[in-house]
Amino acid sequence: MYSTSYLLFQSLTAVALGDALGVPFQFEKREKLLENPVDTMIGHRSFDLPKGTWSDDTALSIASLVSLSLGFNLNDLMTRYSQWYHYGEYTPFGKAFGVGKTTEDAIKRFDQGTKPELCGGVDEMSNGNGALMKLMPLAFFILTSHHQYRFNDQIANLIHQFTATTHRHPRSLVASGILTNVIIRTIQNPNKYAMLKAIQEALTYYGDKPLYKDQVPYFEQLGRINFLRQSSTQIKSSPYVVDTLNAVFWCLFNSEQYFVAVKRAVNLGNDADTIGSITSMLASLLYAPVTFPPNWLRDLKGRNQIKTAVSFALLSDYF
């Protein structure tokens, strides 16, 4: 296992790289990307922004990291999300964009006085991947304070509280539990077999919980090699939390190098930034130490913000 300081900086950089690579191709149809695959930063397409600009995936990850550096405080967490949404904090150019509706609604509820743990959406349509995009800092936070880590009630409750600030549907909570456990287990043991075991560990836990067992069938395919080895034509890349996890793990299990996994993710199209961001983060852990493509790093905006957030975290007692 590499040092926390190295992996945390690498992971947050990877979040931003996958995000920025995918931003111009959000909503892009896969057929067009098959004709002209993405492998470099490009600007001025979906959101007409300079190349290398990150979106909500990275901004919310930075906001979460800074908040967790002061301890687990959901009011502080939502205050930072609100500052991002209204004032463009944690962004390269001082403006939030690409905000998911469920996250936006949650922030508005918080602004109106709703308790942070009750801000998240609970209906069937509130199962977007905004539940997943900000979990990496939480995984490092948990691992730092739980040296004998096990995916149990204490850990699951912590993940659920964190996720419920924006997404409270049981399916989103299960998805967050799965991904957080995979991140932690991959930090501890960076190989694909450990990832599969982590998925199964979380599914086994949720299968024994009356509140969540009905959600398990939505995710059981993640532990099946035949699902992970199928053609990309069978993989959806929508913002739906189930589709996002399917796409991320498909990309990882069909790649043997960091940059290959990330390019696969972005070239799936549709929600290219979030799928690219999560895939990039996990691939950076799976293949650590990673040498990021120099041209990606060169074009990435806001690199000092990433360094500052990580430095702040590492100076705290929580990372």
Automatic annotation (TrEMBL):
The keyword NADP does not apply. Binds 2 magnesium ions per subunit. Mg(2+) binds at residues 55-57, 271, 273-274. Its cofactor is Mg(2+). Gene3D superfamilies: ADP-ribosylation/Crystallin J1. Keywords: Hydrolase, Magnesium, Metal-binding. One of its GO terms (molecular function) is metal ion binding. Pfam families: ADP_ribosyl_GH. SUPFAM superfamilies: ADP-ribosylglycohydrolase (SSF101478). Belongs to the ADP-ribosylglycohydrolase family. This is ADP-ribosylation crystallin J1. It comes from Lentilactobacillus farraginis DSM 18382 = JCM 14108.
